[in-house]
Design brief:
By secondary structure, this protein is mainly alpha-helical. It is built from 7 helices and 2 strands, in the order αααββαααα. It has a two-stranded antiparallel ribbon with strand order 1-2.
């Protein structure tokens, strides 16, 4: 499964927004500077997070983004689902019913095939793993000075 860069951008921005909460809302341009990202493209990448209630967006000259939920209540799966959608990664099209399988009794296809079952278990496993980790967990796993450097960078750029 390949996830787009929007997942990485979204998760990093959520962590940064949590660290900069006392400065919120954070303007798109300022958030983009932290990671050297194109502001307009970042804005498009953050819109699904706003629609899903992960981020709050304040319009205007003093507007920007802030987390809409506490980092402890925001899972990695929330961000992945907002950015990538909720569609399953594997779609079984039942090709076993075609060709050589076309003449077989339909009762032979009552259960999912082994491939569909295995892929379903794998998907459930990665969804559970991402659902069990929060933005707060990401924050706790970063190097001790990451928050300090992000805050210092933000304050020097905006200050």
């Amino acid at each position: 499964m390949l996830m787009g860069e929007g997942v990485e951008w979204g998760l990093h921005c959520c962590v940064a927004l949590a660290w900069l909460d006392d400065h919120a809302p954070i303007a798109t341009a300022r958030l983009a500077e932290i990671f050297e990202l194109p502001p307009e493209y970042l804005k498009k990448r953050l819109q699904p997070l706003v629609r899903e209630g992960i981020l709050d967006s304040t319009p205007g000259a003093r507007g920007g983004y802030r987390l809409a939920r506490a980092p402890e209540r925001l899972t990695l799966m929330d961000v992945v689902a907002a950015v990538e959608g909720r569609t399953e990664a594997f779609r079984c099209t039942e090709i076993r019913r075609r060709g050589a399988g076309a003449a077989r009794a339909s009762t032979e296809f009552d259960k999912p095939c082994g491939i569909a079952a295995a892929m379903g278990r794998a998907e459930l496993a990665w969804r559970r793993e991402l659902s069990g980790q929060t933005v707060a967990d990401l924050m706790a796993a970063t190097p001790a000075n990451a928050s300090k450097y992000t805050r210092r960078f933000y304050e020097n750029v905006t200050g």
